[in-house]
Design a protein that fits this description.
The chain is mainly alpha-helical. It contains 19 helices and ten strands. The chain has a two-stranded antiparallel sheet with strand order 1-2. It has a two-stranded antiparallel sheet with strand order 3-7. It has a two-stranded antiparallel sheet with strand order 4-5.
């Protein structure tokens, strides 16, 4: 059973935050009570300061799940970073629907969102809050009086976290406001083109990797971004280069993937016997799966409470006649299910087929009825030995943002698209763990379907469908285009709009093509 196991923690309904790295307890710097020059005097202070940047991925704000969220104008849980990422990357696809009547939530699956959508604004704002937090950390720390190697490591962690946020901005919004630690505070940022943001991210990640300041696998402290995280993000950038810039970079992607493969990562294949090895990656003690999970957004049911992140995924996936005790929670919210098109991608003997079907119907005839559509049981608040998370009202399950299985599947795709890498062997490592027979000449369709089966609910599906040319047209699913049978939608919806509210506040911003 894990307790406070990461660098950031938040006590429910309390203004004080606590966090730890190993046995180190720290309190994030309160900008209202201290100035950086007074408190930034030790490694403990660096842990405390950077925890606020990590915190932005994990919770809705600094004051517990019911405290003031960092993004105003929306329920704190609904504005949480990973929850917003799920809305954009999963609800827009065959993977997931949400049947609630919360404002415009159904419009994601209908694919008819508008420029003033509240949920789009919330996620967009969350992205740039992360960028600002990282910029401020870098700006303050770079001139601090520390050992250079220690200071550079923390700066490069913040740069990596900023790169994650900018990657999501690049992928979801394309042409966005841009600033770094060198930008003048208080000056309205200029808009950067998608191609130029891609180039900046490529240079930034290459510089982080060549600087070799981040911890390598085996020496990274719990919760910190490692060298593997920077390499993984660069591989993702190259994987989607043709979408972002019009020029494919498959060989460059393959080279980064080979580098990651040499870093000592492997699939998690040894189960404690209660759950499959695959499902152990999505349980309340998945922080022990360090051989496969390259970077995760850490959660703790006592100290990082929010109504977003994996708390949202687990609670919203539970409802109807499902037994919350099997999931390890107090009760379900009855929201998230999958389309029949997605369910039908799984063979019966696939160990990743972690769904509840008993009292559900496969077809989503009524998108607002939780019993329409099979339910997910991949993420649980149970431990690998059959126990429970620390709290049944909030979960301990970390969100695995980057996994080695994804590295192997990216290798398969690169080989199928002409790069020099043994992607077939990598592809079949993933299938073998799932209990499936190998495919010795996987097609691109085989690889896309394998990505769906391996990575569902991990917020990659929209990007994958776009890269394979099957997002707005070429493949349909129930309620796409707001029809039961599904239909093609406008091609411009491969990007989300720049929110109206930000364009009104910043005259430098132009709307993405197709939106009015």
């Amino acid at each position: 059973m894990k307790t406070i196991k990461n660098i950031l923690g938040i006590v429910a309904a309390a203004a004080a935050l606590t966090a730890c790295v190993g046995d180190l307890n720290v309190t994030p710097i309160d900008p209202n009570a201290n100035t950086v020059d007074k408190v930034l005097v030790s490694k403990e202070a660096l842990d405390s300061y950077i925890s606020g940047v990590y915190l932005g991925f994990a919770t809705s704000g600094y004051y517990g799940p019911n405290g003031d969220p960092s993004i105003s104008g929306l329920d704190g849980g609904a504005s949480q970073y990973i929850r917003g990422l799920y809305h954009h990357q999963e609800l827009t696809t065959d993977e997931s629907v949400c049947g609630w009547n919360d404002q415009t939530i159904k419009n994601f699956h209908y694919m008819n969102w508008t420029t003033d959508d509240t949920f789009i604004y919330a996620f967009y704002s969350r992205i740039f809050m992360q960028v600002s937090a990282a910029n401020e950390f870098i700006r303050e720390v770079k001139d601090a009086d520390f050992d250079a190697s220690l200071k550079n490591r923390y700066i490069d962690e913040a740069r990596t976290l900023r790169a994650i946020a900018y990657f999501h901005a690049l992928d979801c919004f394309g042409n966005v406001p841009f600033s770094t630690e060198e930008s003048v505070v208080g000056v309205t940022p200029e808009q950067i083109s998608r191609a130029d943001l891609y180039a900046w991210l490529e240079n930034e990640l290459q510089d982080i990797i060549s600087g070799n300041n981040l911890a390598a696998k085996g020496s990274v402290e719990p919760g910190h971004a490692s060298m593997g995280a920077a390499k993984f993000l660069l591989a993702k950038l190259y994987l989607n280069a043709q979408v972002y810039t019009g020029t494919a970079r498959w060989n460059e992607c393959a080279n980064v993937l080979k580098d990651i493969m040499d870093d000592g990562y492997s699939l998690h294949t040894t189960s404690q016997g209660v759950y499959s090895a695959y499902q152990e990656l999505f349980l309340a003690d998945n922080d022990r799966c360090t051989e496969e999970i390259i970077f995760s957004v850490q959660q703790d049911g006592l100290y990082t409470q929010s109504y977003g992140c994996t708390n949202y995924i687990i609670f919203a996936s539970t409802g109807g006649e499902m037994d919350p005790d099997q999931v390890g929670i107090s009760s379900g919210w009855g929201g998230l299910r999958m389309t029949p098109e997605f369910f039908n991608k799984f063979a019966n003997d696939d160990q990743r087929k972690l769904f509840y079907t008993a009292t559900q119907k496969g077809s989503i005839d009524d998108i607002g009825d939780f019993t329409n559509g099979y339910a997910f049981m991949k993420f649980l608040n149970r431990t690998s030995d059959g126990g429970y998370g620390q709290e049944q009202g909030f979960v301990d399950t970390d969100f695995p943002m980057m996994r080695y299985a994804d590295v192997l599947l990216m290798a398969a795709e690169c080989q199928a698209r002409g790069a020099s890498i043994d992607g077939v062997a990598a592809f079949n490592q993933v299938r073998e763990r799932a209990g499936l027979n190998p495919i010795f000449a996987p097609t691109l369709d085989d690889i896309l379907d394998e990505r769906a089966r391996e990575l569902y609910q991990e917020c990659w599906r929209r990007s994958d469908l776009i890269r394979f040319g099957k997002f707005t047209s070429g493949y349909n699913w129930q309620w796409k285009g707001e029809t039961l049978e599904g239909k093609d939608v406008e091609a411009y919806r491969s990007l989300f709009p720049i929110p109206d509210s930000d364009r009104l506040a910043n005259s430098n911003l132009q709307q993405n093509e197709g939106y009015k």
